[in-house]
Design brief:
Number of helices: 15
CATH architecture of the largest domain: Up-down Bundle
Shape: globular
Largest sheet: none
Radius of gyration: 21 Å
Order of helices and strands: HHHHHHHHHHHHHHH
Helix content: over 70%
Number of strands: 0
CATH topology of the largest domain: Growth Hormone, Chain: A
CATH superfamily of the largest domain: MFS general substrate transporter like domains
CATH class of the largest domain: Mainly Alpha
Number of domains: 2
Length: about 400
């Protein structure tokens, strides 16, 4: 037997460990995906509220997630990652119950809306807790040298779960009713609570506890790079349909599919690239690839090239989060890993929050094609930032 043969078994063992933890991310994002395509129609058509209120119903969850990041890091560091995930799963179960209650009070539209919004807040808080805790637990379980793999598999679990959940939610609402979505959320959370009950937890790491804003300051340079790259994702998902309409094309949904499929393929194929080449180097290559894809969208004369551009953008963006995340987490002590991960995630949330109004304002004046040019330039600015950070790290 050659000396190299044990390595694949070791790699498989690490991957299985990671998968057993990101399972909770999969459950959380499946529960996020199930109602996401149904909610706007429910609020607008069945409850009779405006499109603005329908948008607020979706956005409130993301706002709750953004605001929960400091608390999530504090709970994961101070009380343990297993307990943080447990709190998150309880929040999902309660969100499911409130979603069902909203459907049962549809004859009282304002009450139904308020109950639904409360459920959305709980789902956002749960996402914040589970997102930070699964990453912290995974890194603690398989070692900091596998940080990029943990982040990569966590991303595959989240994007894959939403891709499964959204059409499944539409089918449930059409074939059964809206109330069934809440029941499924509660059932999935209960299943995950049963699974996690006997799973051994990692001990809480003793040591320096950085306040959230101190951790935020330490990870900010990498976080800004993440924001610059992720604005392209927010731009594509928010405006690609309107861009296609402006061009007189059909099939905008295929653009989103191409982005998502290439995103997942890139993570699966190049999961070890960060360890081999370094976080900053991978981030620069990926942001340059994303910029090329966004530029193709900007200049695309037909849907085929737009599809290629979306695929390249997804392929490039895929590893930016883990690549810069590896470098960001090096800046905080192990005992404050949860705070560091929570602070880093804020920069992705921020990209999604600002891309809509920023690119919407640009589109009003220049047209939808130009927003992809601006997003490409921001991604190239991220390349420059990563190069500067790499040179600074090498100098130190």
């Amino acid at each position: 037997m050659s000396a190299h043969q044990p390595a694949p078994a070791s790699t498989l063992s690490i991957t299985l460990q990671i998968l057993s933890i990101v399972f909770y991310t999969f459950i959380a994002f499946l529960c996020i995906g199930l109602p996401i395509a149904v909610l706007p129609g429910y609020v607008h058509d069945q409850l009779g509220f405006s499109a603005v209120i329908a948008g607020l119903t979706i956005g409130l969850q993301y706002l709750a997630t953004l605001l929960s990041r400091p608390m999530a890091g504090r709970v994961a560091d101070g009380q343990g990652t297993k307990r943080a995930i447990t709190y998150g799963l309880i929040g999902i179960a309660a969100s499911g119950a409130l979603t069902t209650a909203s459907a049962l009070t549809v004859e009282l539209p304002l009450l139904s809306l308020l109950v639904l919004l409360a459920g959305r807040v709980l789902l956002g808080l749960a996402q914040g807790l589970i997102g930070v805790a699964t990453l912290s637990w995974g890194i603690g379980a398989v070692g900091a040298e596998n940080t990029a793999r943990v982040i990569s598999w966590n991303g595959v679990a989240s994007y894959g779960a939403i891709a499964i959940g959204a059409p499944l939610g539409v089918m449930l609402a059409d074939q059964v009713n809206f109330a069934s979505l809440g029941l499924v959320l509660t059932a999935l959370a209960a299943l995950a609570l049963l699974v996690i009950r006997n799973k051994p937890s990692l001990p809480v790491v003793r040591g320096e506890r950085l306040p959230f804003w101190a951790a935020f300051g330490r990870v900010a340079p990498c976080g800004v790079g993440l924001t610059l790259a992720s604005i392209g994702y927010g731009t594509l998902t928010t405006f690609v349909t309107l861009f296609y309409l402006e061009q007189g094309w059909s099939g905008a949904a295929w653009c989103l599919s191409a982005f998502g499929v290439c995103f997942i393929i890139s993570r699966l194929l190049f999961v070890n690239a960060v360890n081999r080449f370094g976080g900053y180097q991978v981030a620069m290559a990926c942001m340059a690839t994303e910029a090329l894809g966004l530029a193709l969208l900007w200049l695309a004369p037909n849907p085929a090239l737009a599809l290629l551009g979306a695929g390249l953008a997804g392929f490039g963006l895929s590893l930016v989060y883990p690549a810069l995340g590896v470098e960001a987490i090096k800046q905080v002590p192990v005992s404050s890993r949860g705070a560091g991960l929570g602070a880093y995630a804020v920069f992705f949330d921020l990209a999604l929050a600002i891309s809509g109004p920023l690119m919407g304002a640009i589109a009003v004046h220049l047209g939808y094609a130009w927003i992809f040019c601006i997003a490409a330039l921001l991604s190239l600015a991220g390349v420059g930032l990563a190069l500067t950070l790499s040179q600074r790290a090498r100098a130190h």
